[in-house]
Amino acid sequence: MEEPIRIASGSNELFGMLHTPDTAPARATILVVNSRVEYRVGPHRFYVHAARRWTDQGFCVLRLDHPGNGDSPGDEDYSHIDSFPVEPVVDAVDFLRAKTGDLDVVLAGLCMGARNALYAAARSRHVSHLLAFGMPFSDATPDIGVGAQAESKTVGTVVARNAMSGYFKRMTNPGAWRRFLTGKSDYGVIKRVLPAALGIGRNQIFNEPVFRSLEDLLSRQGRILFLFGSNDVFLPDFQDQYALVKRRLPGGAVGCTVEFIPRANHTFSRVEWQESAIASSVAWLEEQFPLSGAVS
Fold first, then answer.
1. Is residue 59 within 8 Å of 21, Cβ to Cβ?
2. Report field, pTM of the whole predicted structure over 0.85
3. pLDDT band at 184 (very low <50, low <70, confident <90, very high)
4. 2-141+205-288 fold
5. Which CA distances in Å does 192 have to 197, 210, 240?
6. CA nearest to 82, candidates 20, 29, 155, 32
């Protein structure tokens, strides 16, 4: 069953679609967290298709519109990629637990939705699992730009090289040189981009808030599935950073699973890629939450 719901969150009222399985009780609850630019359906209706598949497998799923997003009112500041407020997600977690009898909560998201879910998981002790589809580790994305920064001092190698390519294209533009020579260029961005584009700094954590949130969730015996398309633009940065995270975490990233969808891009835009990603998530969820009486 699918039904629209509204959840009180501070001075806002959040809108969402709640998917309830026919079987009772549900195995666990899954809360889908968005990026700052997507609403509850997700890219290519990914969240809709995933939610229906998860519900068929016995999970209760909530697809949520965050304040100022989709059908939820609000005037939130989304001026940079890590300005996402986690409080509404925590409120939705509490709502789900009250409605479903304190079942385990899984947060799920794609791209920055996955990273927002990670930040919220670190804030809510009720979250035990994270489904992270194509989660960026670096603090800037090709479409938003390297000026949108978090607490870190570097950007990912792939993002930096994309930015440098743009700079090279503007080298024949007199106006670009005029801005550079008159102090109107953003020298801070250039300072961050150039070392990363040259591969300098690959042996440091790109984004400390991401690392600290991972550390927090895993320290509580949390479980994470990182799932990427093999052609995801963020995959090279993830592989570099994940190796560093494993060395830096006391448990060596125990509790994390990493899987890849062959030939898929960042948003799993083709039907077959989307179906494969969702199938992988279902297999992981069934392993984490086996049916009562199932033999492992």
1. yes
2. no
3. low
4. Rossmann fold (3.40.50)
5. 9, 18, 18
6. 155
